[in-house]
Design a protein that fits this description.
alpha+beta, 2 domains, binds adenosine-5'-[phenylalaninyl-phosphate]
């Protein structure tokens, strides 16, 4: 057996034995690579005399072609079996039970905020924001709570150890921040967390408020009444929901009022709305309101002889409890997924 024939059978045997694509590539490099055995023989053609070259040339070219085509054939066999192995490994077991799917829900507070945004945006209000950690000026002093005034004790404040800061007790602080930055005409609302040292069925240490502020040159108590009446009727979806104003005191408004909405008691159940017989009409407080005190305007650099306006603030949990029939305020913040499943809203529902 001459050299070529010997090399041929060696290489073809190696190709046949290559058990994977990597091994096959090693055979290819050893035969046809730059310093491979076939390439080395091809190089000897240059040193041959013409007669020798005439007989050896075609033989060597045939060897190279044969090795190349055997490698290609083996390669496709190996690729095929690699694919079969991969498919077997990755096959789907259709008998496995499906993973349970969990849909998240929108928390009633978020839903309430979305609904309020829709109502007040339609009335032309913008949305303001302020920090949860406040200073005495924005939470009290600028709102006309004089230092040492007993009204400061009405809200059980969490003070920070630094002596200068506190967790805001109401979103009225955002009124001050907004009026410091923006001059009238002002029509804005704000939502936010508020904090007081309280804990029972209707009070939690953290809760949410909405604040509303309107300042212009000709704003009266009539605008406040109209705005509040439209808002509660739109929010609760009851066209003739009775609304009542009772005189009340907040240092930052004059006159000040608490606002009640009407309901009817049916045994233990309550239903918002107007009683057929006025003697059966019951009232529930939902917010505090009033005409912004001239001192508050002055504290924010607004001339009270030119401008006046109204403000009101309401607890969002209270609104949500009434609208969605949620009996206990504390459950809002227990993060119980079953509670959220029951009282939460589908993320695909637009704000009602
Ligand atoms: C205020 O906080 C005033 N800033 C509201 C205001 C704004 C009056 C603008 C005038 C003008 P009050 O302390 O009443 O008022 O609180 C408002 C609402 O917050 C209450 O009606 C109640 O719904 C809610 N609220 C108060 N304390 C708690 C609490 N601990 N947990 C849950 N909700 C509370």
């Amino acid at each position: 057996m001459n050299n070529i024939e010997k090399l041929r059978s060696e290489i073809l045997a190696q190709i046949a034995q290559a058990s994977d694509l990597k091994a096959l590539d090693a055979v290819r490099v050893a035969a046809l690579g730059k310093s491979g055995s076939v390439s080395a023989l091809m190089k000897t053609l240059g040193t041959m005399n013409p007669d020798e070259r005439k007989t050896q040339g075609p033989l060597l070219n045939a060897l190279k072609d044969e090795v190349t085509s055997h490698i290609a054939a083996r390669e496709s066999v190996l690729q095929e079996s690699a694919l079969v192995a991969q498919l077997a490994q990755e096959s789907v077991d259709i008998t496995l039970p499906a993973r349970p799917q969990q849909n998240g829900t929108i928390h009633p507070i978020s839903q309430t905020i979305n609904e309020l945004v829709r109502i007040f945006a339609a009335m032309g209000f913008t949305i303001a924001q302020g920090p949860d950690i406040e200073d005495d000026w924005h939470n009290f002093t600028a709102l006309n709570f004089p230092p040492g005034h007993p009204a400061r004790e009405m809200q059980d404040t969490f003070f920070l150890k630094d002596g200068g800061h506190l967790l805001r007790t109401h979103t009225s602080s955002v009124q001050i921040r907004y009026m410091e930055q923006n001059k009238p005409p002002i029509r804005t609302i704000c939502f936010g967390r508020t904090y007081r040292s309280d804990w029972d069925m209707t009070h939690t240490p953290m809760f949410h408020q909405m604040e509303c502020l309107m300042i212009d040159t000709n704003v009266t108590m009539a605008h406040l009444k109209g705005c509040l009446q439209d808002f509660v009727r739109a929010f609760f979806g009851i066209a003739d929901l009775p609304v009542r104003f009772r005189p009340s005191f907040f240092p930052f408004v004059e006159p000040g009022a608490e606002v009640d909405i009407g309901y009817i008691k049916n045994g233990d159940a309550i239903a918002l709305g107007r009683a057929a017989n006025p003697a059966d009409q019951k009232w529930m407080e939902v917010l505090g309101a009033g005409m912004v005190h001239p001192n508050v305007l002055k504290n924010c650099g607004i001339d009270p002889d030119v401008f006046q306006g109204f403000a009101f603030g309401t607890g969002l949990e209270r609104l949500a409890m009434l609208k969605y029939g949620i009996p206990d305020l504390r459950t809002f913040f227990e993060s119980d997924v079953r509670w959220l499943g029951h009282y939460g809203f589908s993320p695909l529902d637009a704000a009602a």
